[in-house]
Design a protein that fits this description.
This protein is an alpha/beta fold and 408 residues long. It folds into 3 domains: 233 residues, Vaccinia Virus protein VP39 (Rossmann fold, 3-Layer(aba) Sandwich); 66 residues; 89 residues. It has 17 helices and 11 strands. The strands form 3 sheets. Strands 3-2-1-4-5-7-6 form a 7-stranded mixed sheet, sandwiched between helices. Strands 8-11 form a two-stranded antiparallel sheet. The chain has a two-stranded antiparallel sheet with strand order 9-10. The relative contact order is 0.12. The mean pLDDT is 96. It binds S-adenosylmethionine.
Length: 408
């Protein structure tokens, strides 16, 4: 079989899986979905990647491998000024995604059944591409990523998510076991789900694969769509940190950072021994990531942003720049207005009185329905350095977004 025929055969098998079990199997709602994910909101994506809120909210977004359109629907509602396109191999996934967005009246979105390998058929470029849980299911993930890179506008960002090999070791063993039992019936995904469930039911208590499924995945895997996606996939490439960076280095795009940076902090693993932590922190950045990967075998995926240079970077180290910036409250929070809120990562966060007042002032001056004229950081805090440190911390905690004044 030549490469082209193999690629087509694998893509057909993947499409067949998702035509049998469209993913994700979320119910269709008749209104905008509740909540938020900061990775689906352009101002927070832009701020994460550059340090500053974007000059324009009118962006073109591609949800590549959108599945049944859960992320596409969120992106569309959270970014009403954007123009969103969702593409997927699976006809049934696209039909569900279309129905989902029609039902919740997301009007700025379109869908197309198209492979990522064929994105050159789409006109123009995108400011932002979301591609979550997809390229690891392509027969040639690098070619997939390179295809997407050709569609990314200069200064644009792509968010990716792929599986991690170490944290999925038990899943991988079970996938192979199911395939072995299925034999020539591989490709019959309903049979695969049945065989997988039978094996789990038969395994003795305490078996590591059974235990792992029960402790970590059973909640979501009671849905056959999720079980099939995890255990009977015809194509999956799991990454280590090294193979991930080989992929990134070959992509022609620039690594911006992991979009779950807290996971990659050595502090959460070695903080009880400050001397050891300090020694580990002397390692080059990538080795620090490697150490986290080795010490935390619970990591089951990598999620990160890539950029097509050039793109700006705002550090806000200089007081003058910070004082001139226009601060807005990050809308990715729940429970506001209150001094106890869920932050952008859905973590409960307490705001002290000064932070609370600052956020209220941001809303009053720079919110969507301002009661007062626009205000800079200087207008809101005066010239005190101590207050500027607080503003920097609020920015770091993603409680506020900062916009450089010259763009307004
Ligand atoms: C695990 S689902 C992820 C769906 C969605 N991105 C999400 O995170 O909810 C993977 C999706 O990628 C799609 N897919 C796989 N290979 C693809 C390709 N070459 N081009 C377009 N879509 C593809 C599949 O059809 C499937 O719907």
């Amino acid at each position: 079989m030549d490469d082209l025929t193999r690629t087509q055969a694998v893509s057909d098998a993947v499409a067949s899986l998702y035509n049998t079990y469209p993913f994700p199997p979320e119910p269709i709602l008749d209104e905008a979905p509740p909540g938020y994910n900061w990775r689906w909101y352009w101002p927070t994506v832009h701020s994460f990647c550059t340090g500053a809120a974007p000059a324009s909210h009118k962006v073109r977004v591609l949800d590549a491998g959108c599945g049944t359109g859960v992320s596409t629907e969120y992106i569309s509602h959270l970014n009403p000024e954007s123009e969103v396109l969702g593409i997927d191999l699976s006809e049934r996934a696209i039909a569900t995604a279309t129905q989902r967005c029609q039902s919740s009246r997301a009007t700025n979105v379109q869908f197309r059944q198209l492979s990522i390998y064929d994105v050159e058929q789409i006109e123009g470029e995108f400011d932002w591409i979301n591609c979550v849980g997809v390229i690891h299911h392509m027969p040639d993930p690098l070619r997939g990523l390179q295809s997407l890179a050709t569609k990314l506008a200069p200064g644009g960002f792509i968010h990716l998510f792929v599986y991690a090999a170490i944290g999925r070791a038990e899943i991988s063993l079970m996938q192979r076991a199911i395939a072995l039992v299925q034999g020539s019936q591989r490709g019959d995904y309903r049979d695969g789900v049945q065989v997988g469930r039978q094996i789990f039911a038969s395994l003795p208590e305490g078996n590591r694969l059974k235990q792992r499924e029960r402790d970590r995945w059973a909640m979501e895997n009671h849905r056959d769509e999720c079980f099939a996606d995890m255990y009977v996939h015809p194509q999956e490439v799991d990454y280590t940190l090294d193979s991930l960076f080989e992929l990134i280095d070959a992509s022609s795009l620039e690594f911006v950072g992991f979009s779950n940076p807290q996971v990659w902090q050595l502090d959460r693993l070695l903080a009880s021994d400050p001397a050891l932590l300090n020694r580990a922190k002397q390692l080059p950045g990538k080795d620090q990531y490697r150490l986290v990967e080795l010490l935390d075998p619970e990591i089951t995926h990598f999620e990160w942003f890539l950029a097509r240079p050039p793109y700006p970077h705002f550090s806000w180290d200089e007081d003058a720049a910070l004082l001139a910036a226009i601060p807005t409250r990050n809308p990715c929070m729940e429970g506001w207005p209150s001094q106890s809120i869920f932050d952008h990562n859905y973590q409960i966060t307490s705001l002290d009185q000064t932070e609370f007042e600052f956020l209220k002032a941001c809303d009053a001056h720079n919110g969507p329905n301002p009661e007062h004229s626009q205000a800079s950081v200087a207008d809101l805090v005066g010239q005190g350095r101590a207050n500027l440190e607080l503003v920097r911390q609020m920015h770091q905690r993603q409680l506020i977004l900062l916009e450089p004044p010259q763009r307004i």
